[in-house]
Write a structure and sequence with these properties.
Blueprint: H1 5-8, H2 22-30, E1 34-39, H3 65-70, H4 72-89, H5 96-107, E2 112-118, H6 124-128, E3 133-135, E4 138-145, E5 151-153, H7 154-164, E6 205-209, H8 218-230, E7 234-237, H9 244-255, E8 260-263, E9 276-278, H10 282-291
Parallel strand pairs: 1-2, 1-7, 2-3, 7-8, 8-9
Antiparallel strand pairs: 4-5, 4-6
Helix pairs in contact: 2-10, 5-10
């Protein structure tokens, strides 16, 4: 399944479907034996990582995989942007939402957690200690050679980029509108940027992430669907599910008559499928859900059950 760049860059839309509240979500999960969680960029915004489609997100067209592999100039432009973005996003730390999911895995509350499927490439779930994790779109902390397949650390590439481009000073403080969640920053001057080759074979280097127009590796998709089969419910946290790589899991669970809980600020493509649909900060909801704490203004244990 390939990512749809036209849908991926659409503007943020407000939520129009709301169903239930945090206590409804908690009660639903506590009555089941297990759940699987699907996360998107919305869980990482509290860590300073921007999203693609939030209310503050910059409207932009990410580089397509076909563009990257076909044209050296495109690769030069991409790596010039990534060089700037990595300097900022490489310092991001997990927030309370990431830590809540890792805690959920360890405690089994509010129900047993089969695992976390993430569309994010920022590595913050791993940093928080999540063990059962499928990274659908790869990890920005790694670089792959498209010729020999060798995978190396992105951190090791940064000094090589700096040495080859001594006149380019990485910006350490970038605004939300200047960054994208895969460390792809807005850069105007890139035509003279020098991109290093693979140290192993001299081949073309690419971030070890799934670009738009590039298929998600089949083994990751198989494992994610296997977790959905094992789980009794799906909780979507911080994703608009605009691209099919994430939406298909919500549709799959709904087709099997398994509950889908959606927590996201703004509309999602699974709103109509949701048993419980919350519009609230993702990290706050996850923290309260795992720790059994009600949302402000909400009586613990008594959901409003508003129909959407």
């Amino acid at each position: 399944m390939k990512l749809d760049v036209r849908r991926a860059t659409r503007a943020w839309e407000p939520t129009t479907v709301l169903r239930g509240d945090l206590e409804d979500a908690r009660e639903l999960l506590e009555e089941l034996d297990s759940a699987v969680v699907l996360t998107g960029a919305g869980i990482s915004t509290a860590s300073g990582v921007p999203d693609y489609r939030g209310p503050r997100a910059q409207r932009a067209t990410p580089m397509m995989y076909s563009e990257f592999v076909a044209d050296e100039a495109n690769r030069r432009r991409y790596w010039a942007r990534n060089y700037q973005g990595w300097e900022h996003l490489g310092r991001a730390d997990p927030n309370v939402g990431h830590r809540a999911l890792a805690q959920w895995e360890g405690t089994g509350h509010p129900t047993s957690l089969v695992g976390v499927i993430t569309q994010n490439v920022d590595g913050l779930h791993e940093a928080a200690g999540q063990q059962r994790l499928v990274t659908l779109h790869g990890r920005s902390a790694e670089v792959i050679c498209l010729d020999c397949g060798q995978v190396t650390r992105r951190a090791d590439l940064q000094p090589r980029l700096a040495a080859l481009n001594p006149d380019v000073e990485p910006r350490r403080d970038m605004g939300h509108a200047e960054l994208r969640p895969d460390a792809d920053a807005v850069v105007d001057e890139w035509h003279d940027f020098v991109v290093p080759e693979c140290l192993n074979c001299g081949g073309v280097l690419k971030p070890h992430v799934v670009f738009f127009g590039e298929p998600v590796p089949k083994d990751r998709v198989r494992e994610a669907f296997a977790w959905c089969d094992r789980a009794d419910a799906l909780l979507v946290a911080g994703s608009s599910l605009t691209v099919m790589s994430g939406l298909r899991f919500a549709r799959y669970m709904h087709k099997q008559s398994k509950p889908v809980v959606v927590v996201n600020q703004g509309a999602t493509r699974a709103d109509e499928l949701a048993t419980v649909r919350l519009d609230a900060p993702t990290s706050e909801v996850l923290t309260r859900l795992v720790n059994g704490v009600a949302m402000p203004g909400q009586a613990s244990g008594h959901g409003s059950r508003e129909a959407g």
